[in-house]
Amino acid sequence: MQTQFFPSRTMSFYMAKAFILRSLAVLAALVLVLQALDLLGESGNILAYPGNGNAQIMTYIGLRVPQIIQRFLPFSVLLGTLITLATLNQNSEVISMKAAGLSAHQVLAPLILASLAIAIVSFSFNDRIVARATSTLDRWQKVDYGPLPKDMAVQTNVWVRDGNNLVHAAAVRGRSNNIVLSDVTVYNRANDTLLEVVKAPTVKYTGKGWLLSNATRFDVATGIQTPLPVTEVGQEIRPDQFTLAQVDPDGLSFMGLEAAISDLQAAGRPVAALQANLWHKISGPLSSVLMPLLGAVAAFGLARSGRLFLRAVLGMGLGFAYFVADNFGIAMGNLGAYPPWLAAWGPFALFLLIGETVLIRTEE
């Protein structure tokens, strides 16, 4: 048996290249099919807004494709693993490697290293591109595919409760004491009965309350609308209630989500669900490393025995079982039933042990 962990340089490059090319080919096919199906269902909503046309369709595709790549890259790595290993097995290349003294782990080493490189690229892609695309698409959908505000840092359609009253801001800009609200509507209520509606184009935070300028008041009882002088309201409403009202972990980078969690913790608000999503930003891309291990059953066993297809199905079943467990763990983390670390890393650790157990018991 060879003492080095990797096969020869030539063999390692050959296996890694075949694995990466097949994974990318599967990913490209999935993206084309899924984007076409998604566009069939969403194009009507995009074109429903007056003035939208082919340019908006292409913009939607540019924002949606990164999300599809993020979601289905681990599936593509799994299928690429199965195709690569099944082909090597069918051509008796695995038998030749084992006859040369390589163990099952040494046979899989080039694929695991290549999948680690894919995981690193995937994390960077998700952090730099997918998060921004998700945030932009979410804001675009909130305005029914109409014109987006030029300020990409703006939050839209934010609701805050102030006792019995409700406050709606069409747009929120800035942070802390520099926060500015646009197109604000205040619904003043008593005993769940609407008394008046106050509207203001711009509201600024003064440090003690919220300053309304050019506001109007509509009295529900009389049906009369009157202008209001410059008024300060909402002394109990904190700025973080607007800036942290909508924290979408999918629309934030790793560092951005970590900063939002720190702000929420400082405000005394629960963050367990967001912490689970924070760590899943690492464990999610890293799941690509598991795919060669879970699909390894397709590499071994005699191809002429007729069980190669069954082995491939078993590898696919293990891979898809991981994705089910991973989604279940995140769902439990969002509900608060699992601690953040367990929700993010529990399925990864479990299927790492399962893959190693299957490989050791069957091949080592």
Automatic annotation (TrEMBL):
GO terms for biological process: lipopolysaccharide transport; transmembrane transport. It comes from the Bacteria. Its main location: membrane. Keywords: Cell membrane, Membrane, Transmembrane, Transmembrane helix. It is found in: Cell membrane. One of its GO terms (cellular component) is ATP-binding cassette (ABC) transporter complex. InterPro entries: LptG, LptG/LptF_permease. Pfam families: LptF_LptG (PF03739). It is a multi-pass membrane protein. The chain crosses the membrane at residues 68-86, 107-125, 308-325, 337-360. This is Lipopolysaccharide export system permease protein.
